[in-house]
Design brief:
Length: about 250
């Protein structure tokens, strides 16, 4: 309705204005708009009586600024106060009175009597041990030990003959030589009276003649050590050690 009123007003103004000159007028038009808003209100009924108005919604407050920084400071512990210093009383030891011994005149001790010199008696001189002399061989007679009438008996072994204690080098593979026990030969080596002597050896019904050319350090008593050639004529080398009889020629 307001719009129709305004339009009619404008039309009347247009008719009244002469057509010769046109004046421009600025017209301010104000429009009013009515807006209808539907509002719904919820009413809660109180069981005891009248209605209860709803409580307005609670809007959480948003902090606008950061909280101030908090720092942890450990509690200060007061330093222990020094306790009272105890002072122990010093005790001064009492000095005992010094006793001065009585002076006595010095008496020198009696001089000891000089012992009479004793002349030691000469001790008897011990005779120097005499090295055992080599056993003198028998001439092959019937008397005496290691003779044809009383032959010696001992172990018979064999060895590889070479340079002997008598100073000669022998080939035991072809020569019949013998080494007598060291106790029988004695300490002398070169020039020993038994070197070069011959003996007869009997074993198993067989006899041979061998020449003394060496000293057997592993033989004892009446043992003899033959060269391989001499031993093989009486027994086999597999026998190793046998008991035989022998005598000087």
């Amino acid at each position: 309705m307001k719009t129709a009123l305004i339009l009619s007003l404008l039309a009347s103004l247009t008719v009244a204005v002469p057509m010769g000159k046109r004046h421009i007028k600025w017209v301010t038009q104000t429009d009013y708009t009515t807006v209808t808003i539907d509002v719904t209100t919820t009413i809660y009924v109180n069981p005891t009586g009248g209605p209860t108005a709803p409580s307005p919604p609670v809007v959480p407050s948003i902090p606008t600024s950061n909280p101030p920084a908090q720092f942890y400071a450990p509690p200060s512990v007061p330093a222990p106060s020094p306790g009272p210093t105890s002072t122990k009383p010093t005790t001064t030891p009492e000095l005992e009175p010094t006793v001065t011994p009585e002076a006595h005149p010095y008496v020198p001790p009696p001089s000891p009597e000089a012992p009479s010199p004793v002349t030691p008696s000469p001790s008897p001189s011990k005779p120097s041990p005499t090295p055992p002399a080599p056993t003198s061989p028998n001439s092959g007679g019937d008397g005496g030990p290691c003779s044809a009438g009383s032959p010696c008996s001992g172990d018979m072994t064999f060895y590889d003959a070479g340079l002997g204690s008598c100073g000669d080098t022998n080939n035991g593979d072809v020569e019949d030589v013998v080494a007598l026990a060291h106790g029988m030969m004695g300490l002398q080596s070169n020039g020993n009276p038994l070197c070069g002597k011959t003996i007869t050896v009997s074993y198993g019904g067989k006899t041979i003649t061998a020449v003394v050319k060496d000293k057997c350090m592993g033989c004892v008593g009446n043992d003899i050590d033959l060269s391989r050639h001499a031993f093989n004529q009486l027994a086999e080398e597999g026998a190793g050690r046998v008991t035989a009889k022998w005598w000087y020629n």
